[in-house]
Fold:
Amino acid sequence: MKSYNYYRHLFQDTPKPFAFVDIDLFHRNVRDIISRAGSKKIRIASKSIRCNHLLKLLLNSSVQIQGLMCYSPREAVYLSKAGFDDLLVAYPAMNEADIDAVIQQTLLGKKIYLMTDHEQHLLKIHKRAQLHGISQPVCLDLDLSVEYPGLHFGVLRSRVNSKKSAKTYLNSLSKYPGVTLKGLMGYEAQIAGLGDSGSGNGLKNGLIRRLKKRAIPAVAKRRQVVYDQIKAAGHVLDFVNGGGTGSMESTRTEKCVTEIAVGSGFYSPTLFDHYDNFKHQPACAYGIEIVRKPNKYTYTCAGGGYPASGSPGADKAPSVYLPVGAKLTENEGAGEVQTPVSYKGPQELFLGDPIFLRHSKAGELCERFNELHLVSKGKIIDIVKTYRGEGHCFL
Ligand SMILES: Cc1ncc(COP(=O)(O)O)c(C=O)c1O
Structure:
């Protein structure tokens, strides 16, 4: 971990608030993630990066990192026009204009896969693709959640979750020549996106680890069964995608998986601090300015309230990163116009100084900033645009 003074010195002339990526830590995360992937390729979950410059940096950093997992068809089209290729849209699209825009890129020879799990997805894409005289590549989203008594362990996404429902999907697929099945994706969110070593959570951590351990073989079995079914039906797939940052150790052991989706691990926000199987570096953070000192131990900063999406909870709030020991106050948290920070440590802090915070999720911080300051070896080496800075807001 770098010190408060390291970053304060670096950003002494930078107007606050600002967001930054420590490229030295980012590269360390890249190396660690590549080693965690074993022999599998890595597809970048772009929602967790939201910056073209860094997406390119990642793709150029290793041949093992190939392709992007996009979060909307409009984003995929934007990235395709910006020169990226091999774009998997991980969530279904029902808007005809969006589907048409993807088909236009397919017509130009670009590789974009649209996500499907329902006959209505297939019908919609088929109709638009037939109008343009092509068959659009699609991917099947296989649900990998597991049911325990009184607990749905996983997310609520695809309706294809068994051999039977996969058969129904494959049967409907044969009615629609305007779509071609080219990929299989299964996201085991309950393993990849659920921390299991949060501090002060001993009992809960133990339970989550046991539930994960039980789910891992069930996930692997279901993915293999459906993959075999797809193959037996004569489809030739370009990829079988699985996992996320938090599940690489189990996803990489599955024979049929060709690639693992990874995004969050590169910035490593606070939600990814609490996993038993890995520890990445806090590469992304933001700085806010101390503008008041209402009492001896409180430093009130301008702005700073960037909570994350998802079920509301303390884990979705930003966390004070530096100086070490500084904390948000219980009454106010991180707010729209001000964030009081309580600090009793040895670091001298003055009005005008920064306090550094980390977001709880990876890419959402980029919806708050037009630019990311890239720092390396004691210098600001570049200032690059986020999607927002390029004028885009996809979801
Ligand atoms: C389909 C899918 N795959 C993979 C991921 C994992 O991404 P990350 O590594 O950013 O957690 C996500 C995250 O939500 C996802 O929706």
Notes: The mean pLDDT is 97. The two ends are 33 Å apart (CA to CA). The chain is about 30% helix and 25% strand. The domain at 86-262 is CATH 3.20.20.10 (TIM Barrel).
